[in-house]
Each structure stands twice: as structure tokens, then as C-alpha cells.
TrEMBL record:
Species whose genome carries this gene: Halopseudomonas sabulinigri
Name listed for the protein in its UniProt record: Lipoprotein
UniProt superkingdom: Bacteria
Cleavable signal peptide: 1-21
Keyword annotations: Signal
Length: 235
């Protein structure tokens, strides 16, 4: 009698353990994905384009300009059920910075490339070293172009102001001509002349560079700093 009862209890324990295992398996099984439950979504590329934003003012009257490039894609999204029948269709527009890509620049006879940053931007500066020796008097148009593959190209242009062209020609000499052949007063003239031309950034950069270059000669450095302090614009 006791043996029969024990056997019955053992069977019940086995059945309870099996049921618990099955229950745990059901609760841990991942739910079907939305795509499996409701079918699938197909995405078709309709158009792909680039856009160069060179600023609202097309005429360049300073040596610098911030350029931004944007990449845009238009997709058609089609939702299908489990049998492949169309349920819904809509457009999806995507616009992102054209990050870490090359933009080609044509400035007179110079052809160079600039890489965009994470925001799809780069800085155009006509006083960069790549343009040294360029005859700015003959530079009328700057062409910027970008390509993301066959059929995905864009191009835009900037015009160069006449007054800027003459400033660039003079500024290049003030910045890049041999500094070692000049004395302290000529250094001061270069710094101040750049400021008079409205090129304050270049004026400050040249001043800081001259102070850095004379670090090994405290006397010369002191003379330059003193001359800067004593001079007045226009001297």
C-alpha cells in the first residue's frame, strides 16, 4: 500500500517538473518580430543627390567662407503582409551631412580638394598655402564640385569681388614673403597692413607667429613687442 502511494507521488513529481519546464520554455521563447507578424517592408531608392551650400551671398568679399555639403535620399517604403500583398506605401526622405568626403575646388589654375568634417563642412580660405603664387587679378570664379558616384554630382560657383582680388594679391606678399630679410619695423608694418586691409585674422596669426619665431631670441622678441605697442595704425 505504502509502495503504491510512493509510486504515485513520484509520478506526480515527474509530471509537475515536466510541466514547469515546458512553461519556462514558453515564457523564454522570443516573441515573433513585427516584420514576421505583419509581413515585411521593402525600401526602394527613388532619388539620390548632393547639395553644396556656399552661403546666400554669391559674391565673395572676404578670403574665407564656410561651405556645407548635404546628401539627400528619397525612398519609397512598401509594407507587405505574410502573403506578399501590398498593405501600405509611403515616401521617406533622408537628409544627412556629407561627412568626411572630398570636395573639389577650382580657383584659377589651381585644382585642390578639401575634406568635409563630421558636419559635412569645410572652410574655404583663399590665403592658404596652396594658392601662393596664384594671380588673383585673373580669378573671377571659384567652382566647387562634389560626387557620390555616377549620376550623383553637384556643382556651384562663387564670384570673387574685385576689391578682394587686389587685397589678396597684397596680403599674400605680406604673409608669405621672407620674414628674415625684414627688420622689426617691417614686421610691424606687415601686421598692421593686414589689419588695414580688413584681414584681422591673418594679422593676428602673423603677429603670433612672429612672437613664436623669436622665442629663442628674447631681445629681438622684446623689440618686436615694444614696436607693436608703440606703433599706431597707418604708420
Amino acid at each position: 500500500m505504502n509502495t503504491a502511494i510512493g509510486t504515485l507521488n513520484y509520478a506526480r513529481l515527474i509530471w509537475a517538473g515536466t510541466a514547469l519546464a515546458l512553461l519556462q520554455a514558453c515564457t523564454t521563447q522570443p516573441a515573433p518580430s513585427p516584420e514576421t507578424a505583419s509581413g515585411r517592408i521593402e525600401r526602394e531608392l527613388v532619388s539620390h543627390s548632393l547639395h553644396i551650400d556656399a552661403g546666400e551671398q554669391r559674391v565673395l568679399d572676404t578670403p574665407h567662407r564656410s561651405i556645407k555639403v548635404t546628401e539627400s535620399r528619397l525612398y519609397t517604403l512598401t509594407q507587405l503582409d505574410s502573403t506578399g500583398a501590398q498593405l501600405d506605401q509611403q515616401d521617406q526622405f533622408q537628409s544627412l551631412p556629407w561627412a568626411n568626403q572630398l570636395v573639389d575646388l577650382a580657383v584659377g589654375e589651381v585644382r585642390i580638394s578639401r575634406q568635409t568634417d563630421q558636419d559635412g563642412q569645410f572652410r574655404l580660405n583663399l590665403l592658404d598655402e596652396e594658392f601662393v603664387g596664384l594671380n588673383f587679378d585673373e580669378v573671377r570664379v571659384i567652382t566647387l564640385s562634389a560626387s557620390a558616384g555616377p549620376g550623383v554630382q553637384t556643382e556651384t560657383t562663387l564670384l570673387v569681388d574685385r576689391d578682394l582680388r587686389s587685397k589678396l594679391q597684397e596680403a599674400e606678399q605680406l604673409i608669405y614673403d621672407n620674414l628674415e630679410e625684414d627688420d622689426v619695423n617691417q614686421w610691424v608694418f606687415r601686421v598692421q597692413r593686414l589689419a588695414e586691409l580688413g584681414l584681422n585674422e591673418e594679422s593676428s596669426q602673423l603677429e603670433n607667429m612672429l612672437i613664436l619665431l623669436t622665442t629663442g631670441d628674447p631681445q629681438l622678441q622684446g623689440d618686436f613687442i615694444q614696436a607693436l605697442g608703440e606703433a599706431t595704425p597707418g604708420e
